[in-house]
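pipeline/complex-builder :: batch 7 item 3
reading input block
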Amino acid sequence: MDELLKEFINETRELVENASQTFLEIDKDPDNLELINELFRVIHTIKGSSGIFEFLTPLNKAVHVAEDVLDRAREGELKLNSEIVDLYLDLLDQINEWLDEVEDSGELGSEAEEISRGFQEKFSALLGEKENKDTGFEQEQTSSQSAEASELDLPWLLQIEDKIRQDVFLSCKSDDLLAVEYIPEEGSFFVGEDPILTVKNTPSLLGVKANFTPPEDRESFDPFVCKMSFYVFTEASEQEIKEHYLYVEEQTKVYSLPLDALIFPCGEQVEPDLVSDFLQEAGSFIQNENWMELVDRVNVALEIIGEDTFIASCLIWIKTIILSQKKEYLALVPSFLEAIKTGTFIKMLKKQPPRVDKSDSDSTVYARELTDHDLALCVDLLKTQLKVLSGTKQKELESGVIKSVQKVLKQILLCLDKKELAAEVKEKGKDVSGLEVLLKQLIDDLVNEHQNKVLSKEEELQTKKAPSPAPAKPSQKPEDKTIKSQHSEIKVLKVDKVKIDALMELVSELVVAKNALPYLAKKAEEVFGSREMGRELKVQYGTINRICEELQNAVMQIRMVPVAHVFQRFPRLVRDLSKKLHKKINLVMEGEDTKADKTVVEDLAEPMVHLIRNSIDHGIESPEERKDRGKPETGTIILRATQLDDQILVEIIDDGRGIDPEKVKRKAYEKGLISEEDLDKMSDEQALQLILAPGFSTAEQVSELSGRGVGMDVVKTFVESLGGTINILSQKGRGTTIQIYLPLSMAVTRVLTVEVAGDLFGVPIENVAETVKVAKQDVKTIKNREVIVLREKIIPIYHLDKLLQLRSGQIEIGVEDEDLAVLVLQLKNKELGLVVDKFHEDIDIILKPLEGLMENYTLYSGATLLGDGRVLLVINPKEIEKWL
Amino acid sequence: MAIVYKEDVAYFKGVCEVEEAEELLDWIKLKNTPKIDVSEMEHIHTAIAQIVLFFKPEIIGLDKNSFFGKYIFSS
């Protein structure tokens, strides 16, 4: 299967699982906006990634409408009640089914389209009249950004050179356009992105501003770290842009802006004296609408004035506007003329009526209403000027500073429409102290005038770190983002399970290989007579051994996963089943963080599902029944995981009706599982274990949920195949506890090695109760069987050599008075002794199951290689009874 | 190979993929006055563009009205 598709399936499975969890939480807390937002993100991601695959369109469409509904919920227009949650859970189930289909056959089934339509209709019904509304997410984003744009609070726009803005202005056919801020992630090349190609292929592209922020020195330059960012102007619809930048959605911001937002001059300020002739003539050309003549004059003026100056920029804009033949923008030409004269461009926004300045009725001054934001900026600027003045210590710099502050102050005053004061700046503020007085006075005026508003805005600005209005200063925004992305390094790696298994395999081979070193050392000493060599080998072995152990531990840790992986699916199961059976159940999960080997945890799921179903179906009573018995209406099921030494204990505890041992015994007797004799003798505890016997079902009626052929015996077999045990405790009327003991890890088994007839065998350490030496005369015979008495307990003993037919025909070695080495095995309900020749050390091994002919010898659970190359067969104590 | 190297000039031809960036980087680091000829270039990957922008080699045959001419190598 395609790698991308595989990745999609894995990821989506995880997302679906997460979403299911969150929906269950939402069910309890439907107003939790945080949860709704989280869900929205998850559903949005599924929608986005499924869109890559064309054959997944039915899935994509269904998720799309589901996302719309969530959006309404986000807006508070819709409450996610239990029915809606049900619908979502159904959809998530369906997505899982679809994923299975895709995994099996590489495509969706023929009925997918119809199922999808069903979901779409259901979700659309929730949307009601607003069904056809566009998805809200992008809309919300744009509307807020449009508002931003209309205030022209787009500091990055100042970075865009005249040439680009003019090109965009000329080629744009409508009055509005979109700007896409695209800051690719630094590692984007590694996920197959080519940002330039993405930008280049932008639909209806009008212009691009590309930024490149490389490191300063050659050594740290890495062409594979993306250091480019883009501002892309386009005439395409928002939908088109959304689709085009779908895969890099999080790296982009879309702004909708009016075309006139692009129109402003920039460049170095120069005195307008050089173009005074032009200024004189231009007014009349404008009045007479003699535009082409004006263009000629502009061209002449451009030859006089230097490039890249503020005046040249104004002139080119005048020319651009006239040549664009966009008549509605001609009204801006006088603003440019004014800008050339005053050095300040005050644009009359299209939708605002021109304001006639009463103080100077001869000339019409176009200005826009200053917003609080502008005023705050003015105050900010004025304060900066004060700082600049107070910071001037060197005399030779003073005059320059004064000039600069004068200029800023004058322009601010012009902006504030205080022309008289502006005219007085040069005189009143000819020295530092004079300027300081002027500045302070103006600040006070402004602050007093708009005290409340300004102050609040100022605070806001401080937190926002308002961009400086100086056109030359680029925005900090892109840099901030870059820094952010540097921190978002990958912390979690997803690795294919097969690779981890392969690693484990290699580690086990290494363990075996390293075990050969002590033998080699021995050989060096004994065969080659070099003690020194032997010693060195042993030292080396010590080091390799330590590293090996650490490596093994590390790999094991990778495989350890919390049982939460299994537990998390149960809230959904309990919710669904309790609804179906009209029971009230509270599920409590404890110790979800307990970790165990991945295989163990994964395999745990199946038996647990069965056990929980049993608890809900047979254990917990109906609310009425519970009430009658004086129990709370809501039953409780506790799932608990506890870590023991080298095992984990998983318990499923319910406070339901419990199991009646008498009923179990009778049933077992009826089914012929026990004899009449057993019926009387059997203890309650033993009786309970009967339900684990094959072909046993106590439920009077086989319900839809449990008792469909999968009995407890299957659960038992399952648990035992994992190397675990299962135990049942129950009190009639009080509840049932099922305990499952599982090994923490299946990868490494600790075995005690014993020698029999010259061969070594392994016995899993967890089954070894003790090892004892018994004098031969202490072996008694009861009913023709050899037994020993150990702490007043009779333990039958068997000779392993005979059991394994190892010494047939040979004379038993050992002298009459020698003690017998007895290995006492702890089996489920009893102990038995195995007579061996010798006990050896216990070792960690990686057990390999037997294959081929040996597979049928269930007496052995597997084999492993010893350091010296010998094969160690490991005895399976659970099966040993069958072979006796 | 979409990049052909001849002495001090690297000829970009057709579409130059990211795989060619490393070789270009090694080449350009060794040259005192590297030049690139883009007259037959259709597209280059961003990684390659970054090398060009960083080392600023002399660019030959750049169509000022092409996407790269207007927006990427304009300054």
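note: The radius of gyration of chain A is 42 Å.
queue -> next item
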